[in-house]
Design goal:
The chain is of the alpha/beta class. The protein is 45% helix and 13% strand. Strand 7, helix 9 and strand 8 form a beta-alpha-beta unit. Helix 4 runs parallel beside helix 5, helix 7 crosses helix 9 and helix 12 crosses helix 13.
Length: 340
């Protein structure tokens, strides 16, 4: 495939039954692009001179942080709300989030004039909360972490008739975020490796359906060893919650694995790495100093995984998605100072 030959998309009127919990396909991602491209720009794929020198490879950054909400998830929000059943347009939708998923749904709600309520943990990133409110969402606080907020959001959806939007068990979200992978394939078809953080697993699933399915690339997931729920589910084929959830990276901070993405990753993900909190901190500091990118801790998990497999990356073409830039200023300053 040449980078000058775009991946052919199905007719844009095709709408899949996204309310059903069926695994999305590469065709679903192609259909999603017809909707997502009407509302969001393509994101840059830029060679990193610093990381290319470190790994003796061609390392490219997929700059999802340049999207309107500063994170990849908005692709999924646009795709899901653009196909939302009319019965939910008046009551609206509700979601639980530590920030980026909530901003995604809030942004899409504003685009399609659909009311949005977001439930966040009590200690949620305040800059992300403010961003959701600026986008018109009603923000509610509940519980000490994402999973507490999720339980409360599900309860409110049942009581008030909202459409609950899960952060990963949504084929439309996975198909939407997968559109980033189509852009990678079209611009850089000879990719050898792609590293992606895993929280709920929607982003890694999207790359598996695109980069993994359409090229010979090895797709590798990364999660903090301080919050290994999805890794344990992938490795051991179960959906049991994990007690440990102590990571500083809120984008990958969950105690409960999700059925849809766990199965998709078990079927398609080539490798899954657990990385240390110290390696995540180091990655945030290093990329800010080298590239002036305020990268979230979730992104840095990918860089940490790359460093674990550095010996085999020599001479390879590697893509490293900058999945989000919505890190609190105080946390960024502290990590940069700590890792000098």
């Amino acid at each position: 495939m040449s980078k000058y030959d775009p991946v052919e998309s199905p007719d844009e009127t095709t709408v899949f039954p996204y309310h059903e919990l069926t695994s999305p396909t590469t065709t679903d991602v192609l259909c999603a692009r017809n909707r997502v491209s009407q509302h969001l720009p393509k994101t840059p794929l830029v060679r990193s001179e610093v990381l290319s020198a470190e790994f003796d490879a061609d390392v490219y950054l997929k700059r999802e942080d340049t999207l309107p909400t500063g994170a990849f998830k908005v692709r999924g929000g646009i795709n899901l709300l653009s196909t939302l059943a009319p019965d939910f347009h008046d009551p609206g939708v509700i979601a639980a989030s530590t920030g980026n998923h909530g901003q995604s749904i809030a942004y899409a709600g504003r685009q399609f004039d659909i009311p949005v309520t977001i439930v966040v943990p009590e200690d949620a990133n305040q800059s992300k909360v403010a961003a959701m409110e600026r986008l018109g969402a009603t923000v509610m606080f509940s519980g000490t972490d994402f999973d507490d907020a999720r339980v409360h959001a599900e309860k409110l959806a049942s009581e008030n008739g909202y459409r609950y939007v899960h952060s990963a068990n949504e084929p439309a979200l996975v198909a939407g975020v997968g559109t980033a992978g189509l852009e990678v394939v079209e611009e850089l078809p000879d990719i050898d490796y792609l590293f992606c953080p895993v929280g709920g697993g929607s982003s890694a699933s999207g790359y598996c359906l695109t980069v993994g399915a359409l090229t010979d690339a090895t797709v590798i997931g990364a999660q903090s060893e301080a919050a290994p729920a999805m890794y344990r589910a992938w490795a051991n084929d179960h959906l049991e919650p994990h007690d440990r959830m102590e990571t500083l990276a809120e984008g990958i901070a969950t105690r409960v694995p999700f059925a849809l993405t766990t199965q998709l990753l078990r079927d398609r993900l080539d490798d899954f790495r657990l990385v240390s909190e110290d390696a995540i901190k180091q990655g945030v500091g290093d990329l800010y100093r080298a590239e002036r990118i305020p990268m979230e801790g979730a992104c840095a998990a990918s860089l940490a995984a790359m460093r674990q497999r550095a010996d085999e990356l020599t001479g390879a073409t590697v893509v490293f998605p900058i999945s989000g830039r919505n890190i609190e200023l105080e946390k960024l300053e502290a990590l940069v100072a700590e890792t000098i």
